[in-house]
Amino acid sequence: MTEIVSSMPRLRKFLGTIALLILVVVWALVAMALAQMPAIRENAIVSVGYYVIAGLGWCLPAIPIVTWMSRKPRANA
C-alpha cells in the first residue's frame, strides 16, 4: 500500500491535505478547550503566551506531513 501511495504524487498530496485539515481542526478544538482552564483564562500574560504557543504549535506536527507530501516519487527500479 505504501508503495502505491509513494508512486502517486497526486494521491499523496490529497491524503496529506486531508491529514493537515484534520490536524488543524483537532488542534483548534483542543486549544479552545484548554484555553478555558482558569489558570489560562484569568491571567492575561499567561493567556497571551498560551495563544502564541497554541497558534504556532500546530506547525511542528505539520512539518512531517508537508515533507512527506512534497517528496519526489520513487523511481521504479
Class computed from helices, strands and strand pairing: mainly alpha
Shape: elongated
Number of strands: 0
**What percent of residues are in strands?**
under 5%
What is the number of domains? 1
The main β sheet shows up as: none
Regions with little confidence, pLDDT below 50 for 5+ residues: none
- In N-to-C order, the SSE pattern is HHHHH
Contiguous helical run count: 5
Topology readout:
Layout: H1 2-7, H2 9-35, H3 38-41, H4 44-57, H5 59-69
Give a brief rundown of this model.
The chain is mainly alpha-helical. It is built from 5 helices and no strands.
Question: Can you give a write-up of this model?
Answer:
By secondary structure, the chain is mainly alpha-helical. It has one domain (2-69). Helix content is 81%, strand content 0%. It contains five helices and no strands.
